[in-house]
User: Which sequence fits this backbone?
């Protein structure tokens, strides 16, 4: 098997559920089940147990015990009943919307049925659970009543009149929009909508919508609208003023980033990697950089560098 970080990650993701039962497992038998040799298995177990250079976001809570012939794993994450979080349900909703856009018309009915049932599950979540998970997802607290109102307008293809406060504006401004989709990406909730004033598809952060009123005017989503052009791999790519975030990743994490982004050929001679990301949300950029600590540096734009500095200064005691 190719010894890349991605290949190793696939093996580890298969390995942990196999072993996470608190029982002793013969190393030879585990290696045979996974289709690897003993040395590769031990290397994977060592990588999983030590994880000194794991990128930000790796889940902790796995205990591994190894002797000459046996291995056992304890991982609470795999021993309790699974329940999808609100963010995971939202990700499924986004995936179904993208799938519908890619599939032929004869398959739309089945996909729309799945979308309808998923929305019913989300709508049935207790308010305190929704609010807690929205807060845990990051960003500013979200008005769950507002979220429900926007979702209802989106599902019913009804226009909205909103008061939206842009990050660089002194006060909110009124806009009339056709909400095409509500998505969770980059740790925030967004409304993807056609804005009547600018006559184009725009992305509005939900926590910046100060008020929303449903208008009794129907609309149809254009057949050429593709949500994946706006949101992909958990990131928002559309903005009113598109920008670019350039980040240098240190050699300690560059190989992980390069393989994830498909940029293996762009790693520099010193082992670092510099990538430009589409930038629609400065808050996302700050969170993205800070999760890697000193191993990620913003090269541009200057306002994001300053935002990172400000966030770090705010974290200092006193």
Assistant:
């Amino acid at each position: 098997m190719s010894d890349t970080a991605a290949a190793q990650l696939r093996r580890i993701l298969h390995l942990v559920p196999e072993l996470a039962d608190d029982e002793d497992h013969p190393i030879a038998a585990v290696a045979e089940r996974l289709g690897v040799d003993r040395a590769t298995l031990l290397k994977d177990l060592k990588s999983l147990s030590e994880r000194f250079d794991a990128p930000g976001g790796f889940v902790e809570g796995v205990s591994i015990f190894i002797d000459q012939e046996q291995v056992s794993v304890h991982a609470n994450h795999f021993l309790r009943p699974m329940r999808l979080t609100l963010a995971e349900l939202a990700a499924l909703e986004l995936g179904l919307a993208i799938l519908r856009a890619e599939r032929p018309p004869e398959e739309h009915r089945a996909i729309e049925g799945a979308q309808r049932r998923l929305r019913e599950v989300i709508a049935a979540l207790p308010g305190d659970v929704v609010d807690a998970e929205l807060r845990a997802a990051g960003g500013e607290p979200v008005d769950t009543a507002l979220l429900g109102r926007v979702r209802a307008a989106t599902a019913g293809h009804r226009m909205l009149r909103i008061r939206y406060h842009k990050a660089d504006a002194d006060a909110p401004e009124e806009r009339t929009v056709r909400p095409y989709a509500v998505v969770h990406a980059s740790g925030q909730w967004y409304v993807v909508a056609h804005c009547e004033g600018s006559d184009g598809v725009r992305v509005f952060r939900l926590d910046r919508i100060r008020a929303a009123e449903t208008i009794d005017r129907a609309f149809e989503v254009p057949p050429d609208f593709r949500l994946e052009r706006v949101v992909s791999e958990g990131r928002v790519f559309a903005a009113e003023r598109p920008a670019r975030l350039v980040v240098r990743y240190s050699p300690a994490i560059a190989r992980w980033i390069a393989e994830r982004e498909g940029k293996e050929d762009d790693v520099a001679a010193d082992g670092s990697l510099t990538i430009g990301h589409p930038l629609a949300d400065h808050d996302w950029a700050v969170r993205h950089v800070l999760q890697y600590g000193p191993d990620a540096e913003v090269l541009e734009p200057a306002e994001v560098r300053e935002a990172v500095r400000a966030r770090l200064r705010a974290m200092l005691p006193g």
In short: The longest strand covers residues 173-185. The first helix runs from residue 5 to 19. The mean pLDDT is 75. The chain has ten helices and 13 strands.
